[in-house]
Amino acid sequence: MTAVGAPARQSGEMTVGPPLRRLGFLLVRRRRLVLALALAGLIAAGVLAAGAASGLSLARFEAPGSESDRAQAELAGRFGTGSPDMIFLVTARQGTVDDPAVAAAGRELTARVGREDGVAEAASYWTRGKPATMRSTDGRHALIVVRVPGDADHVRARVLPVLVPRITAGDDLLQVRAGGGEEVFRETVPLARQDFVRAELVIFPVAFVLLWLYQRRAMAALVPILAGVFAMVTGLALLGGVLLWTEISTFALNLTLAMGLGLGIDYCLFVIQRFREEIRDGRDRASAIAGAVEHAGRTVLFSGLTVAMSLAVLFALPFDFLRSFAYAGIAVVVGGLVAAVLVLPAVLATIGGTLLPKSTRSEPGDSGFWHGLAVRVMRRPLVFGGLATAVLLLLASPFLGLRFGVADDRILPPEAASRQTQEVIRQSFPAEETDAIQIISKGPAAGDISAYAESLSRLPGIAQVDSAAGSFAGGRRVGDGDPIRFRGTTATEQGTWLSAVPSAAALADDPVRLVAAVRSIEPPFEVLVGGYPAELSDYRASVVDRLPLVLALMLGVTFAVLFLMTRSLIIPLKATLLNVLSLGVMFGAIVWVFQEGNLSGLLGFTPTGTLDPSIPILMLCVAYGLSMDYEVFLLSRIKEEYDRTGDTERAVAVGLQRGAPLITAAGGILALTFAAYAPARVTFVQMLGVGMAVAVLVDATVIRAVLVPSLMRLAGPLNWWPAGAPRTLLHQPDRVTGPAGPG
């Protein structure tokens, strides 16, 4: 075999041919420089990645500019108050919270909390006139509600780690436990990070074994994993640059590492597979590398563009939490492309012989299991395609029962301290004081506050309404309320505000509907409705309202990418329909498992009967991009064979035989990467892992092996319509470079 970069081959082939082919020869010739730069870049990226990981933010579920967002700003700016950020559950070790000694200790503890650094306000059952909403039905528990102003990073990373241990120490009279939304999410972050570490400890060795079984060479199994690590580290380093101008959620770290490893392995496998084929066809190593970069590199670039564009549509949503995943996904795609298209060819030029199988016997594409399966499917396309479609529609059918809701403490495992606190509150208290709905007048309160408060208190699900005119429940005045809390908030130029405390049952059932009911009551003056339930309602409404735009952008950009690759309008349309079917199966699975609670005992989570819309929308974009990833891999082989022979059926059978083994192996490894998150202790992470694993497996097997050949057989010559569309720069017909045939 001719040595790498032999002059006789370089002089003719390195200066002619498509740009990617010339790039392949250049990378072979400059392999030492490329590897040195890659190593230096990886070291620098590692340093930047460490800084990026520590700089990720603890983003909140917020809808900037919404009514609840403006209400919160008004409440803080005009009245110097706001919704509580956290809660302390105080339990009397003996007797009840009304015992004189316990009450005195409770008042002292409330004052102490209010003096802590970072705390703006603290109030309790004992300091607010002993309202029923802040006392458990059995009298053993009472609440201290706390407002800690600042962004999520400040509250969760600086204030609470100091405040919670100091206050929960308790004494002989009182037991104190921490809860509330901020404490729940403060506990969520380290658990999610631990879930990642455990998953990666499983993924790396198992991925190596699977790659070795597929590649039959240890080095051929190790190199794709190293490419995945390169993509992960590079992706995190790029996020470090993004952090200079925007915030990125810490949860994006999980997606960065899972997708980085999976895509790095996928792209690397595709290039190595093509390199092996070129060697089997009689090329010397330099020409084989150039051919791999020309053909597999082109496919990998289209695939990366498809995945990146699918995730980029998340920028259409005005939420930092979801935009974080767009930045993370695009960053790891860039890392994977650099690893596969620029670094890997230099690796192949250096140690390519150790990646080759022991036998270099040429494997024809017109025989084998996948070729035979494609032929059988295309003989009876309606039977096979119809049966596969029916099965997938059945699996997708639970999606019809999808119910969007809001996330709460039950995303954590039962042993989490904040969840245990919230469970006591949910079971023992008649209302949710920390989740009060705040109603703020836009200007002067020129109207009857009492009548308005009475009307609000009659709403089903509202336990009590507190206002400057007193406290109301069931349409009746039940007390003077808290005069200190509402001091000066009467019918003056300053205006007023009211606090509608929801019952625990109403919040558990449908907090969004409760907020809508509050907003439907005609106020005597202009108001803004805020508070935690309203924030969740506005966030959910904003996400769901923009869902059609996200879908339209995602379908449009991926359709355009596939058209550029295939020069066909029919193939992108078919791919879109198949990927939508694949997404339906994924959503059917997460509804059946996480909404309806099937397998909850096995996976160890608590179903709530609804799904928070954020994670499904993220999964929609990620799964669609990865589905198109495999579509691009398969179509590139089919298109290449069709350009060579002009025979659609032969092109499908040969393309499936050459592409399906790789797609199945890559899909299995990527599915494993996500499935490793199924045993996670945070439900969000579990949902992402299970849903993505299902989507990848269905797409890499049933969709590609059965529905693609059946639909292409039914479409026949229409597959390539319009025939006269111009070729793209990156898609060139094969050229003959000598006796070996097409390169």
Notes on the structure:
The chain is α+β, with helices and mostly antiparallel strands and 743 residues long. It folds into 3 domains: 18-59 and 187-406 and 544-720, no CATH class; 85-179, Alpha-Beta Plaits (2-Layer Sandwich); 437-530. It is 62% helix and 7% strand. The protein is built from 24 helices and 10 strands. It has helices at residues 7-13, 19-29, 31-55, 67-79, 100-115, 152-167, 181-215, 218-242, 252-280, 285-312, 320-351, 369-379, 381-396, 417-428, 449-457, 504-509, 511-520, 532-545, 547-566, 570-595, 600-603, 614-645, 648-675, 683-715, and strands at 86-92, 121-124, 141-147, 174-179, 437-441, 462-467, 470-473, 476-479, 497-502, 527-530. The protein has a 6-stranded antiparallel sheet, with helices on both faces. Helix 8 crosses helix 9 (252-280) and helix 17 crosses helix 18 (532-545). The longest helix has 35 residues, at 181-215. The two termini are 17 Å apart. The model is unreliable at 1-12 and 724-743 (pLDDT under 50).
Number of strands: 10
Helix % is 55-70%
Oligomer: single chain
Distance between the termini: 17 Å
Average pLDDT taken over every residue: 85
Please report the number of helical segments: 24
Q: Beta-sheet strand percentage?
A: 5-15%
Lateral strand order in the biggest sheet: 8-7-6-9-5-10
Number of individual domains: 3
Structural class by secondary-structure content: alpha+beta
The description of the largest β-sheet is: 6 strands, antiparallel
Rg over CA atoms, rounded to whole Å, is 30 Å
Family: Belongs to the resistance-nodulation-cell division (RND) (TC 2.A.6) family. MmpL subfamily.
Main location: membrane
Subcellular location: Cell membrane
Pfam families: MMPL
